[in-house]
Amino acid sequence: MINQNFKMDFHTHTNYSPDSKTDMKKSILTAIEKNITDLAFTDHVDFDADIDSGIGDWDFDRNKYEEEIKFYQAKFEDQINLYHGLEIGVQPHLTDRNRDVVKMNQYDFVIASLHSVERRDLYHKKYFENHSDIDAIRIYFESYFESVKTFKDYSVLGHLDLYVRYKEELENVAFHKYNDHVEALLRMVIEDGKGIEINTGGYRYGLKYANPNRSFLELYKELKGEILTIGSDAHTPDFLGHKYDETVHLLKEIGFKYVSIFEQLKPKFIKL
Ligand SMILES: [Zn+2]
Ligand SMILES: [Zn+2]
User: What's the DSSP call for residue 108?
Assistant: First the structure.
């Protein structure tokens, strides 16, 4: 399918997420204004998220969420394609709980993100105090690998090198020092018929690139990875579709010919 006007945002948050105040309708209207044709809502479910701050489970009324998305799908069907998604926080001990969540509703798209390592949310940075830079990265990828070794109810991995958002110096650790970890993870993703996302949310944190960065994308291409989604990780409407054209440009430069959208958890390829 070739669509000159196609523009996707497959990672967005609304006020169903505890860290966003955005009204769903406002997001939709802004997305239409920004000429986004395919918009997925991916609110947070993140269990056992952080032992230090006492944040236990991030969750919300998932039935109401589904109803609201369905309502707007019908209401705006001539103007935009809307998708029922979820960003689920994976950790090795959460597989059963997360599987139950995904089975409970009919999703189009599920992002598996690793926000917490050793039950510490990277956002609070305590994790980095206890590890050298290289260990912080390696343990993060080991934990991601262990999580998706058993949890398979997802579509793509979220912001694969998320840790640079919170400790940008980790970007300076040479890729060859941990690329075997990344490769093992990506091989499993590809073998399982899953994909990865490119997440432009890092720009909001002052990064000069999307996550994951180019080295990861080149490795993914080399391993014959094909499923890729683009998302802004917008928690407010103004960031919807952020840096979309630059991201498409980067993907083409690396040699990718398609991005994917997901409907009822099945990928559909869209030519770039
Ligand atoms: Zn995330
Ligand atoms: Zn997110």
Answer: S
